[in-house]
Amino acid sequence: MNELLVEATRGGAVESVHPVSVAVTDTDGRLLADSRHPALVSFWRSAAKPFQAMPLVEDGAADQFGFGDEELALTCASHSSEPAHLAVVDRMLARIGLGEDALACGPHEPLDANVARDVIRQGTTLTPRWSNCSGKHAGMLALARHNGWPTAGYEKRGHPLQERVEQTVAHWTGVAPSDLLHAVDGCTVVCFGLPLTGMATAYARFGASSEPAAARLRQAMMTHPHLVAGTGRFCTELMSALPGKIVAKVGAEGVYSAALPAQGVGIALKVEDGDSRVAPVALYAVLCQLLPVLGMETTPLAALAHRGTVSTLNTRGEVTGAVRAAGSLRFLV
Length: 333
Hints:
By secondary structure, this protein is of the alpha+beta class.
């Protein structure tokens, strides 16, 4: 079967099937491997964050406000609102000279279940800094201040900041601005729709690029994987298990993107029904199949085997089934 699926089982039977479209490309956009619909157009969601952060470095705003690797990692993050994440957000805002009321993102329940429980137990009032996207927003505010643009409305289409980001996305993906779809992300910022092949190409280029901004952001993400996601999150686990060998970033609605820098390879996938629960399972399966073909060591993936088959539990904590990958990629070279 030359297509990738993720199955959910119950009692030994397949209860549901989640089709996965995948594009694996090189820096020229050449398709190396795929599944189902590699040119599927989808919104990139938070997997676009490294490219939304690129102008922050390119324009000199990161240097102006003294942002180091920790701040840059958080601009690319979908963080879990752990204390380390909130501390970096607070530091960024202080350096910009703005309060969290300037953040256009709204609060939501922390992505980490333990943090979410602590919030409820302690009666914490959630504010915009708790958003998993607050680092991205703080970075955008810094860019606006640096360029003398209004901070009000920085998240909206038509604002010069979002026009600058659109140019960056077009440059790295190879998709013309006129061909990009536009919508509003969950955090209120403009999000972009484009083919999976364009997403994969952008990540291949991001991983291999010697351009200073790309190199700084890539290094920041790989040096501080915990800031990119958080405890028990797959982005963090993956970059920790393969240090310096992979950059990975999740997006909502079943999107994942990754780069293998030394190989100049980019990966983009979309769980077609949007089930984000199964996206890590899909990416793990892609890597298990892809790394041997590229001549990469697969031993580190053994530490992440729990991502390949995830047990499902009932309300008593008893195992009732599993979520697991089935099928395979189609290799074109």
